[in-house]
Amino acid sequence: MNEFLQRVTKHIEHVTSVGEHCTTEETTKQALILPLLDILGFNPYDPTKVKAEHAADFPGAKAGERVDYALFCNGKPVMFIEAKPFSSNLNNHCPQLSRYYNATPDVTVGAITNGREWRFFTDLVNKNIMDSEPFLTVRFDQGQTEAALQLNQFHHDKFQPEALRAMAEENTYLSAFKNAITHILSECDTDFVKYMAARAGIQRTFTARFIETVQPIMKQAVVKAISDMVTTSLTKPSQADISANETAPPPPPAFDPDAPTIDPNNSKIVTTSAEKRLLEISTDILPNEPLVAKDTESYFSVLYEGKANRWLVRYWANKKRPTLNFCMPLTEQHRLEIKRAKIEMMGSDSLVLDKPDLLSRIPGLLDDALAFCKNDENFKRAQAQDKQPE
């Protein structure tokens, strides 16, 4: 492997130094393409391994066509190569290569090159039909040593079609995932902001206005997180350093979305996973409504528009059995709905809520609670009573 790496490195230097002098296709072949075939173990002077101007009179191909190079293993063609001049743009020449490839089932790889850039194709989408996009592109004029190392799997003595297809599939997925991640991180679209806000434990209803407000903050967070990761990777001690110090630093604690959240201003206010779940259920049943969580030392509330007096539900978890109350007086119809949902009641107005998911069984009561909170008349009367002289 070391010898192969040295030869590839020297070839990169060779392409950089003489490439501009390869003004014709034939010069490009002799100076840049054949040397690489030799590095890959395909001796260009051995006709059992390399055949130039290989006949391409295959079914479906134009009569008299010939592929520039056919590479052979064990007497069978395994790779076709189309050569172009050093200055040529490769974008418009793939259809010609695909005609040869599609008509020859034994061929695993098709390649097109101008000596400085090599594009490798296979048949991941449809068997024996060359893909429209390359699974590997190597630019020797840009010193892509890492990408060039993948060429070791093309070596004559290691040429295995299934291994190459596996590498092609991995490269294709890697490129697709990289492009998707780059787009998501640069754009921070709505879905990404919602996902990250949920993972961060933000207790807010993810309305369009909220997403628009936090989107620029999310972009700043992404930039800072990536910067911190790069800095950490550069300053992280190597395994040798850790071994020398005998003890490795403990790993950071794993993120636990179910862990309770402690109010930084009051350690007695602890928001539990059950309380967080109540907010999630409420926002699922009442999407796009401005619901906000409010926790206290005694109880947990889901508020409308963040107003303390307009609470839809209040939840008490510090009792022998957790209970929940709605803001509006319960009617007989409400009690019938609660009974049908198999939810036990404690007294005339409290619901026993051993599990927060029980709330999802009575969505109608949440609808009525929201309507109650939106009706200003319900609160004007309370305000008038508060203003009466004692």
From TrEMBL:
Residues 63-127 form the Restriction endonuclease type I HsdR N-terminal domain. InterPro entries: Restrct_endonuc_type1_HsdR_N. One of its GO terms (biological process) is DNA restriction-modification system. Keywords: Endonuclease, Hydrolase, Nuclease. Pfam families: HSDR_N. GO terms for molecular function: ATP binding; DNA binding; type I site-specific deoxyribonuclease activity. This is Type I restriction endonuclease subunit R. It comes from Parvibium lacunae.
